[in-house]
Amino acid sequence: MGRGQPLQSDENSGPVTERGRRTRRKLLDAAKLEFGEKGFHDASISDITRRAEVALGTFYTYFESKDEIFRALVRDFSDGVKEAAAAGISASATALAIERDALAAFLSFAREHKEIYRIIDEAEFVDPASYRAHYENTAQRIFERLKAGGATGEFRDDITEADAWAVMGMNVFLGLRYAVWAKDDDAIEDVPERAMQILKRGITA
Amino acid sequence: MGRGQPLQSDENSGPVTERGRRTRRKLLDAAKLEFGEKGFHDASISDITRRAEVALGTFYTYFESKDEIFRALVRDFSDGVKEAAAAGISASATALAIERDALAAFLSFAREHKEIYRIIDEAEFVDPASYRAHYENTAQRIFERLKAGGATGEFRDDITEADAWAVMGMNVFLGLRYAVWAKDDDAIEDVPERAMQILKRGITA
């Protein structure tokens, strides 16, 4: 400990050195594997540091406890979902295409980080406030997108919060089925288009 | 133990006497409160029997372990969701009305049994096979309904499994928001109609 460490490890401002940021990232990536494989109760700080290939004492420069790195990991995943969606929709031409591309980006993210479901879901028990914040924040972002589509006349002008929770639910369960529980013969690449068709014209003939 | 007890307690066929069925029901209702409040790990068989007002030994006439009553409770909830939806749609006039009424019945069920989310979600960790079976079976039922609507020409004729998972996701997250996390000023009674509008014509203007 000591050399090249962050000047402080407050979880909001984070490490101030580039080396500190890399070490914190290594710990979070190791925690993702550890919590994802073992679940919160069986995971251990010593196994997280072993996976991260850092000294046990180094852990405490960044996080105070197993609870704290778990909370940080939930926030990290929540930010990852947000950033993946934002990157996915940067070139989307219409409000409908934004929803299709946001779902496609989420499915890619969930396929790359299959632990996300287990970890976010376990937060319901380990850290209920983070669990609820993740979904409330995600629904709020979707609500803003849908209202923006309403403002341009592409979406209905009476979009409600319920519409946003409905869209989020579609996306979460399509991710569960086609990213986490994917089968070999699934036409995964068709899924965002199918979901967009529901948003475009429902499921009626 | 002994008097009025079921002749056998195999979990598939269940108790054979009416008194046995009532006792098993009391244990499941008590387990719902116990697991719902404390979670699986902190719940205890002795507190379940205390809540059910039956002798501790009686528990083992019906269930072998805490794991077994938890699994039975997940199946019981899964059956409850299925039966509530079936009752809700018995008089529905159209395929769209079936989806609206099924959601309304699910929201009522979830408001009456708010523990359902916590218990089904904890099954992801305590009993992953039951967790997956619950959602796969529910999606399959929705898929059959949507295909039936396709066969009569009310829904599109190219309904896929992804459409069913999308509808299930909408319903699950509308239940999370408007049954479990309901706020005082929510217009909960409007939610099934809002969801049906999405299925009818999407969210486009």
Automatic annotation (TrEMBL), chains A, B:
Gene3D superfamilies with a match to the protein in the record: Homeodomain-like, Tetracycline Repressor, domain 2
Pfam families xrefs: TetR_N
Source domain of life: Bacteria
Residue spans binding DNA: 44-63
Biased composition (Polar residues): 1-15
Keywords: DNA-binding
Region Disordered, annotated ranges: 1-21
Gene Ontology MF: a single term: DNA binding
HTH tetR-type domain sequence ranges: 21-81
Protein name per its UniProtKB record: Regulatory protein, TetR
Lineage, broadest ranks: Bacteria, Pseudomonadati, Pseudomonadota, Alphaproteobacteria, Sphingomonadales
